[in-house]
Amino acid sequence: MTNPWVAFLLVPLVKIVVILLAVILLAAYMSFFERKILAYMQIRIGPNRVGPRGWLQPIADAIKLLVKEDIVPARAEKLVYFLGPVLVVAPALVVFSVIPFGPAFKLFGYEVAPYLTDVNIGILFILGVSSIGVYGVILGGWASNNKFSMMGGLRSAAQLVSYEVPMGLSVVTVLLMANSLSLVKIVEAQKQAGVWFFIPGIVAFFIYFVCGVAETNRNPFDLPEAESELVAGFHTEYSGMKFAFYFLAEYANMVVISSIATVLFLGGWLPPFPNWLAALWASPALAWIPPIAWFVLKMAVFLFVYIWFRGTFPRYRFDQLMDLGWKVFIPVSLVNLVAVGAGVLLIGGK
Predict the structure, then answer these.
(1) Model confidence over 77-100: pLDDT tens digits?
(2) Closest CA relative to residue 125, chosen from 135, 114, 116, 138
(3) Higher pLDDT, 16 or 6
(4) Which domain holds residue 99?
(5) Structural domains counted in the chain
């Protein structure tokens, strides 16, 4: 007989601590990987002073930000100024509570799932909670009492609202194919179908990821920041750990977008073609690979593409950015949604 205190209190607390520490550590080292990869692309060395080959650089950066003087503008709206970074980083961390990193497994007689919870409206929860982050950017820019910060916040409002629409429509196509809002059931639906959803939903997959790049304010869509134009944009007046929170949220949101793309379009923790190549994955040479390793590998590919974009593409003009969202992605995503819906009805024989 299992102890209910262990199952309903201790295990969730351990999961929360593990997920938070993993996300924070990954976000810290994403900055290191980004600087290293960009250095290789530009035939430079990158950070190499702190620790072996620079591997302790994120720890040095964290210590520097912790001891850095926290300057608050004299005419800032103090309460809102402090709430800005919190409203950005908190939703980015909360979203990880419903992302499934692998199937349930047995540990010391208890069934442990490598995710905090599986709610039947998981994808709606993610879309609702993640949309709160834009308020942290807008309010942080406004509360700083700096016209450049305010301009960066307004750019962010226009950009994020514009790209949330086609992103949501691309997610709906997956919901039609999976017939569920649960992220775990979406992965299981891909296993039953024997194919990852990015193959029948290639258009939705492309729209989702490009919109995800725009939602995280990354190149070539980093107009809210646009440091060459706006003196770093909405976070110009922030320093110390409040400044670090904005970048922690940026990298955490990159991981969120990559994780959701992995779950919705690339089969989550499933290996490639799990039904067609079942004998291959069950062979002694490959059976040792844990499901979570497939999830991490797919997520790492998306994160690498983020960095690749930054080292490759020039920044869009703001009118080009808005035209792409409203005049291209929204019409295409609507047409694609109708096409996928018709295909689901025909295949389902309804």
Answers:
(1) 889 999 989 999 999 899 998 999
(2) 116
(3) 16
(4) 71-105+117-348
(5) 1
Tokens of 164: 């949330």
The predicted model gives 50-64 an average pLDDT of 89
CA dist 274 and 348 (Å) reads 22
DSSP character at residue 102: S
| The Cα angle at residue 38 between residues 36 and 41, in degrees rounded to 5 | 110
The identity of residue 113, as a single letter, is: A
Give me the phi and psi of 110, to 5 degrees please. -110, 145
Q: Taking the complete model, does pTM exceed 0.85, yes or no?
A: yes
Distance CA 288, CA 45 (A): 36
More confident: 349 or 99? 99
Mean pLDDT of the chain: 87
Q: Cα(117)–Cα(95) distance, rounded to whole angstroms?
A: 11
Q: Would you say residue 48 lies in a domain?
A: no
Whether the CA torsion 259, 261, 267, 273 is positive or negative: it is: negative
Give, as one character, the DSSP assignment of residue 77: -
